[in-house]
Amino acid sequence: MGIRMRCESWDVRRARAVVLVAAAVGLLTRMLIAANTPGPADVRIFAEFAKAVTVYGPVRIYEHPLPGLPVYNHPPLAGWMLLGLNGLSELGMSFATLIRSPASIADFCCAILVFEIVRRRAAQGTAVLCGVGVAVSPVLIATSGYHGNTDAVAIAFALAAAHLLADRKSPLAAGVAAALSISVKFIPVVVIPALFVAALRGGRPVLVRFAAGFGALFALVWGPVLVTVPQHLRENVLEYAGGTYHLWGLVRFADVLGLPDSVITSMQGGGHFLFALVCVAAGVWLAWLRPGQLPGAVGATLGLLLLLSTASGLQYLTWAAAGTFVLGFWEGLAYSCAAGLTAVLGYSGRSAVRWNELTLEVGAAGWTVLAVGLAAGVRRILAAQPDTPPKPPAERAPLGAPRTSRPSGSAVN
Q1: Contact 303, 353 (CB under 8 A)
Q2: How far apart are CA 190 and CA 200, in angstroms?
């Protein structure tokens, strides 16, 4: 409480500077981990993917079998990223460090982004705590600094799209950010309909500009692949269902309850599309009812996707981390700590894809914390006044002007 009271006395620039420093410390921590640890098997796999992309190109990579490697299930922009990182590694830089840099930098940006989102909807002290929470989030440090992958980058672009559309009134840039999010990792596709619905609620000009930004970037990045190897893109990326391990959430609980393997196989097969549709419907519903709370709707949708996911991977825990801080500080803190412990235990074990019993139990606890946090966050979104998009607070009150207080509360109050 004392920290929050002191934060309320700061102007926005000072509050933003505090978050910026925390984000910089968080980035340095992640990069030190990346530079001094080998990382999980994905680091080696990405290095091999990068070599293959260099040989076959970011477009033709989808049609070539890669013996000894898992399916190349990354959207087109990831191929161009790997091409650039491989070029840097040939100059003498460590690829193991490079591959974990995009996610670490994305977390840096996301901390500032969450601060900007929350300060428009809650007390400034809450916004500072949420921004710092993202910067030092245990689960994000573990997944971005140690694991890498591109999940954090995709999430940052998805939240940026919501912020640009709902708060910055920049639908063209929001459309570009939305297309970038699914071009790095396909996971944020579940929030795209919600973004279009919010744009629609903003009026025809907003919808047209958002669609133009989205369509132009999508055509630029996805167009060459769709024209050249559409079948391979569909099989590798669009229909990818994740691994078949029974480690997380619904599949884990089904396994514990002793449900038939046919049920679990169905859940991880065609059933995962049904769960994705539930997430899409939830996001669209929230965006239609509360377009001004679009960042919270996007955060809740991504969290729900993780909650209902039939696949399991420690890097997937990233999906809900920043979004839960948008929903509320305590929700974000609880999830980050529970999921962070899951990630640390998982990465400390013999294999990141074979969790020991303790990791499984902590993961189940993290799933429960996420469920409770999402329920509380959605309730706050619905409690917000409809059709009243947030207005940015003044950067600095004029000298001698009376100070107005803003009620403290959750990130979506």
Answers
A1: no
A2: 17
Tens-digit pLDDT profile for residues 324-383: 999 999 999 999 999 999 999 999 987 777 899 999 999 999 999 999 999 999 999 999
pLDDT at 349: 83
What one-character-per-residue DSSP string does 35-102 give? HH----HHHHHHHHHHHHHHHHHHHHGGGS--TTS------HHHHHHHHHHHHHHTTT--HHHHTTHH
Partners of 354 in beta bridges: 351
pTM: 0.91
Query: Which alpha helices (H) appear in 202-260, and where do they start and end?
Result: 204-228, 230-233, 249-256
Q: Which residue has the tokens 């940026």?
A: 160
Cα–Cα distance for residue pair 148/141, rounded to 1 Å: 10
Question: What are the residues facing 351 on neighbouring strands?
Answer: 354
What is the model's pLDDT at position 11? 86
Name 1's Cβ contacts closer than 8 Å, sequence gap at least 6.
Answer: none
What length is written for the chain?
Answer: 413
- Per-residue pLDDT at 412 exceeds 50: no
Each residue of 253-274: pLDDT tens digit? 999 999 998 888 888 887 888 9
Q: What is d(CA 352, CA 337) in angstroms, rounded to the nearest whole number?
A: 18
Return d(Cα 318, Cα 151) in angstroms, integer.
Answer: 7
With tokens 């409690």, the residue in question is: 383
DSSP H/E element including 374: helix 357-383
Reduced DSSP (H G I as helix, E B as strand, rest coil) percent helix, strand, coil of the chain, to 5: 75, 0, 25
Tokens 């477009």 correspond to 59
Residue 185 C-alpha from the chain's centroid: 10
Q: Which two structure tokens, joined as six digits, stand for 143? A: 């997944």
Residue with tokens 């400034």, as numbered in its chain: 124
Residue among 175, 201, 230 nearest 293 (CA): 201
Round to whole Å and give the CA distance between 236 and 59.
13
pLDDT attached to residue 392: 57
pLDDT for residue 52? 96
Query: Rounded distance, CA 222 to CA 112, Å?
Result: 29
Contact, 412 vs 380, CB < 8 A?
Answer: yes
Both tokens of 219, joined, read 């055509």
The answer on pLDDT for 133 being more than 90 is yes
